[in-house]
Amino acid sequence: MLTGGEPTLRADLEDITARLGALPGLRDLGITSNGIVLAKKLPALRAAGLTAVNISLDSLVPAKFELLTRRQGHDRVLASIDAALALGYAPVKLNCVIMRGVNDDELLDFVALTKDRNINVRFIEYMPFDGNAWAAQKMVPYAEMRGVVVQAHPGMARLDDLPDEVAKNFRLPGHVGSVSFITSMSSHFCAGCSRLRLLADGALKVCLFATAETSLRDPLRAGADDAALAEVVGAAVARKKLAHDGVPTAQLVRKSNRAMIRIGG
Known about the structure:
A seven-stranded mixed sheet has the order 1-2-3-4-7-6-5. A three-stranded antiparallel sheet has the order 8-9-10. It folds into two domains: about 5-190, Aldolase class I (TIM Barrel), CATH 3.20.20.70; about 195-265, no CATH class. Helix 1 runs parallel beside helix 2 (about 40-50) and helix 2 runs parallel beside helix 4. The radius of gyration is 19 Å and the shape is globular. About 30% of the residues lie in helices and about 15% in strands. By secondary structure, it is an alpha/beta fold.
């Protein structure tokens, strides 16, 4: 998954996508984007081998969108969703961080997007990271979000998730798309999580909340071959803690960590 920051800011994104897409054994190559300029880049990225699209969108209200993102462009994000659907991406995933008193009143509006289009709306629990003005009272737990959706759509049914799936996925009767919940705070999925993050500075992060990181840049610059790098990665994974970097969920707010924009979604 190509993420950021914002990957579409890279002038060489198409070249990076093509080079990654040509790697032997790579089955999927996706992007997580804010969607501001994605629409005009998607045809070339599709041709270069991009197979999946995640778009971050926390509000369907233009004024609220501008307040949250500090930029205009709500209409361009919606255009990127339409462009991804038109190019055949199925589903198009929408990442939505739900915050009490901010956008929790839009849950059912987001669900409505899945009625006639193959969109997977992924409701994400608010998490503590450096610089995101964390406040515990803003976190809306999975059970509460699910309850709101079930009350409006009592036939919502759980799908069979893969063992390493990080989301709880649901189908709604009569809906083309689907709804998911990422429950990092209230019901962690650490035992099955297989996600690794390679950051822009060459650091490998084996857990979103981990403060310890492993440099791949340094051994690469020292001439390490693929076998040596595989040993470094394997050792980092072996050190991964059971859950949340070994810290109780309630104490995550006191952990020092990078800002999410520097980690990548």
